[in-house]
Design goal:
Helix content is about 30%, strand content about 25%. With about 425 residues, the protein is α/β, with parallel strands linked by helices. The chain is elongated. It binds uridine-diphosphate-N-acetylglucosamine (UD1).
């Protein structure tokens, strides 16, 4: 099994490109199920989760054509199996995103229940309740969500509590081909929801309000394919910016959209970093020897993203001063704390808050990646630790970071993939 070997202590300098957004690519690929003609999706990141989604579509009989530059053409006219199997769903919870499109287009779907995961119980009750409110008949049989609808789904008023990103996306997609109007209240405002809506609008959908907490969708009779390029990955960009704030140096990230990173950039400024922001690029410089500690609380967009929480625990572990990091989105998203503690981090967990005392230096150690963003925090810790860090189970990192070791190497880090 691959591992990452990192020798800490190098400053980061240079330029890299942001990859396409994983969390935007996944719903957009699922949206291909709604179209009568092929959908072409560009700027897809080369990630295991994207491969899993393509495999999932392929397992349903969908024709997927991949070009070298990761532009994909998805043609659903050959679909012959409306079943998302457990083997694929258990490796990627976002597989639930096919539920809405399958029901809306084919009136039937069987989607395996995802089960538990490392960052909390993560139920899918909101997805199921919303489809029921739109007229679907849903039973849980042998670990599967077995769903069907007599005729078309019906527009409905759906209220999310708590806010759910993929829940909002599932309902938007279902509503596009439903009869009548759907109004989603307390909708997720994440930029990836806007990206999905823009793609669907390009396919002929009638959607208003994406990016706000009320989204209105007027159902149409059919959607066509279009060509769409997914937005840059704001979590990937945020992760590299945090790496620079920790390791020092100056880095420009091109093809990034800093407007979607305000909460992260504000915290990094408090940590002592300087930014030059342009529409499509972000440059960070860190002249201080160490970042200042920054306290934060995660929340749905535009609050501080839970997907950046682990990276900031890492930053705070070597910062000047003490901090608290409070997680409000997922109940158990602190698996990285024990691993950073193995590198010398001084972190105490009090309920859903990590209380962090910044220390002079972390020391390299063998550590284990437990989930996607926890793994990223260990890479950042390794970059600044004294000595060598070996990170095991990096398949978690490969789910969400495209060529992480190549990008960091280009910036001067001493990092390599070993087996
Ligand atoms: C998405 C992102 C993930 C990010 C998360 C929160 C994708 C593919 N993944 O995940 O990277 O960390 O948003 O920003 O876009 N909940 C329920 N019942 C449900 C659904 C959710 O109780 O049916 C709860 C969850 O347990 C969690 C909260 O709602 O506490 C938010 O989760 P949600 O926004 O749904 O996360 P995902 O869409 O799975």
């Amino acid at each position: 099994m691959d591992k990452l070997l990192i020798k800490g202590g190098c400053e980061l300098r240079g330029e890299i490109y942001a990859s396409g957004s994983k969390n935007s690519a996944l719903p957009i690929l699922a949206a291909s199920l709604l179209a009568d003609t092929p959908l072409k999706v560009g700027n897809l990141p080369h990630l295991n989760d994207v491969t899993t989604m393509l495999e999932l579509l392929g397992s349903m009989g969908v024709d997927v054509m991949l070009s070298d530059d990761m532009e994909v053409q998805v043609d659903t006219s050959s679909i012959d199996n409306l079943n998302a199997r457990y083997e694929l769903v258990k490796t990627m919870r976002a597989s639930i995103l096919v539920l809405g499109p399958l029901l809306a287009k084919f009136q039937k779907a069987t989607v395996a229940l995802p089960g538990g995961c490392a960052i909390g119980s993560r139920p899918v009750n909101l997805h199921i309740d919303a489809m029921r409110a739109m007229g679907a008949d849903i039973n849980i049989e042998d670990g599967n969500i077995v769903a069907s609808v007599d005729g078309r789904l019906k527009g409905a008023k759906i209220m999310f509590e708590p806010v759910s990103v993929t829940g909002t996306e599932n309902v938007i997609m279902a509503a596009c081909l439903a009869e009548g109007t759907t109004v989603i209240e307390n909708a997720a405002r994440e930029p990836e929801v806007i990206d999905l809506a823009n793609c669907l609008i390009g396919m002929g959908a009638q959607i208003e309000g994406a990016g706000s907490d009320v989204i209105t969708v007027n159902g149409v009779d059919r959607l066509n394919g279009t060509t769409f390029s997914v937005m840059p990955d704001r979590v990937e960009v945020g992760t590299y910016l945090t790496a620079v704030a920790m390791a020092g140096g100056k880095v420009k990230i091109k093809q990034a959209k800093p407007e979607y990173l305000s909460s992260v950039i504000t915290k990094l400024e408090s940590a002592g970093a300087f930014f030059i922001l342009e529409d499509n690029s972000v440059e960070i410089s860190m002249k201080k020897r160490k970042p200042n500690a920054v306290s934060l609380t995660t929340g749905p967009y535009p609050s501080f993203p839970t997907d950046m929480q682990a990276q900031f625990v890492s930053l705070n572990s070597i910062a000047e001063g003490n901090s608290t990091v409070t997680e409000t989105v997922f109940e158990n998203r602190f698996m990285h704390v024990q691993e950073i503690a193995r590198m010398g981090g001084n972190i105490t967990l009090k309920g859903n808050t990590a209380v962090i005392e910044g220390i002079e230096k972390l020391t390299g150690a063998p550590v284990m990646a437990t989930d996607l963003r926890a793994s990223a925090s260990l890479v950042l810790a390794g970059l600044v630790a004294e000595g060598s860090t070996v990170i095991d189970r990096i398949y978690h990192i490969d789910r969400g970071y495209e060529r992480i070791e190549e990008k960091l190497k280009m910036l001067g880090a001493d990092i390599e993939r070993i087996s």
